[in-house]
Amino acid sequence: MAFLDKIVEIAKSDVQTIVLPEAFDPRTIEATHKVLEKGIAKVILIGDEAEIKSTAGQWNIDGAEFINPKTFKDMDKLVTKLAELRKSKGMTEDQAREILMTNVLYLGVMLVKMGYAGGMVAGAANATGDVLRPALQILKTAPGIKLASGAFIMEVPDCEYGENGIFIFSDCALNPNPNAEELAHIAVSSANTFKALVHAEPHVSILSFSSKGSAKHPDVDKVIEATQIAKALAPEISLDGELQFDASIDAAIGKKKAPDSTVAGQANVIIFPDLDAGNIGYKLVQRLAKANAYGPVIQGLSMPVNDLSRGCFADDIVGTVALTALQAQMQNK
Ligand SMILES: CC(C)(COP(=O)(O)OP(=O)(O)OC[C@H]1O[C@@H](n2cnc3c(N)ncnc32)[C@H](O)[C@@H]1OP(=O)(O)O)[C@@H](O)C(=O)NCCC(=O)NCCS
């Protein structure tokens, strides 16, 4: 079964509620119809029900819940909570009300924070930063995790490596130059993402141009330190570094270059030392190996929020809703 079909089946097995705040975007409406029709998730759309339905055309969105900021009965509760959460940044109740009445992304994130939904998907009509900022400010990172990062699920055709050709690559989207501690947190978050989305045992490799001391350089030292920190943070995870990519995934090369490593040769979670490597690496595999790249999946937040490309299609929104639902399922456990 293709990766996305599997994700959809898992999403349907424990249905979550996902907020789609960009209800004015036609692709969101088409996606809502498809998500509801397939039973992938319950959907909250933000805006006036009659107005949104008048634009729905052929798409049936009757099963959605509508939250209109102008009439929402619990708005005062959200205002009080947002002002409380952002008090240290000087936010007043008036400012909190203004932002929740006018910015659907902040309202969507607050609906997640207050438990009306398990996650949010947006970005069809908003820039990445505008989607992520409220999530980072309000939801914050998960307990024990220092920073949010962006993973791609790579589905490589005809590939014997990884989990039958499935890998998590990260960080490919958010943190340009992580230090050793940040890299360690990215590795732990990525293992959790692998468990949530691939439903298999993660084997995490922190990449370098050196395998187990084959080269000496401050960049190698950073990866060695990150590996030590990650092992201390999550000793239960199968994780190792510093390893080159070939030694990470290929058993014969892993045996030669890192004979004592329990991860070398079987890695399915690939951690790049910085964003240059991560972003370039996922695009190389996507283009040259004709792999499907799903993401970026934002990981490390206390509750899931995912960003879309502004060039996305309705089916991309459906897939991202399913991925977000699986992250929400994991968070509930
Ligand atoms: C992530 C991003 C939204 C941060 O927003 P910003 O406007 O620069 O604002 P700040 O740096 O003040 O961060 C806002 C909040 O997010 C937090 N934050 C920023 N980056 C974070 C991270 N990686 N993990 C956790 N929290 C983070 C900050 O601590 C801050 O919290 P606070 O307001 O409670 O103190 C911004 O860097 C961005 O737009 N990145 C673009 C990412 C992108 O386009 N990637 C390529 C596409 S895939």
TrEMBL record:
<keyword id="KW-0808">Transferase</keyword>
<keyword id="KW-0012">Acyltransferase</keyword>
<dbReference type="InterPro" id="IPR050500">
    <property type="entry name" value="Phos_Acetyltrans/Butyryltrans"/>
</dbReference>
<protein>
    <recommendedName>
        <fullName>Phosphate acetyltransferase</fullName>
        <ecNumber>2.3.1.8</ecNumber>
    </recommendedName>
</protein>
<dbReference type="InterPro" id="IPR042112">
    <property type="entry name" value="P_AcTrfase_dom2"/>
</dbReference>
<feature type="domain" description="Phosphate acetyl/butaryl transferase">
    <location>
        <begin position="3"/>
        <end position="325"/>
    </location>
</feature>
<comment type="similarity">
    <text>Belongs to the phosphate acetyltransferase and butyryltransferase family.</text>
</comment>
<dbReference type="InterPro" id="IPR002505">
    <property type="entry name" value="PTA_PTB"/>
</dbReference>
<dbReference type="InterPro" id="IPR004614">
    <property type="entry name" value="P_AcTrfase"/>
</dbReference>
<dbReference type="GO" id="GO:0008959">
    <property type="term" value="F:phosphate acetyltransferase activity"/>
</dbReference>
<dbReference type="Pfam" id="PF01515">
    <property type="entry name" value="PTA_PTB"/>
</dbReference>
<dbReference type="InterPro" id="IPR042113">
    <property type="entry name" value="P_AcTrfase_dom1"/>
</dbReference>
<comment type="pathway">
    <text>Metabolic intermediate biosynthesis; acetyl-CoA biosynthesis; acetyl-CoA from acetate: step 2/2.</text>
</comment>
<dbReference type="InterPro" id="IPR012147">
    <property type="entry name" value="P_Ac_Bu_trans"/>
</dbReference>
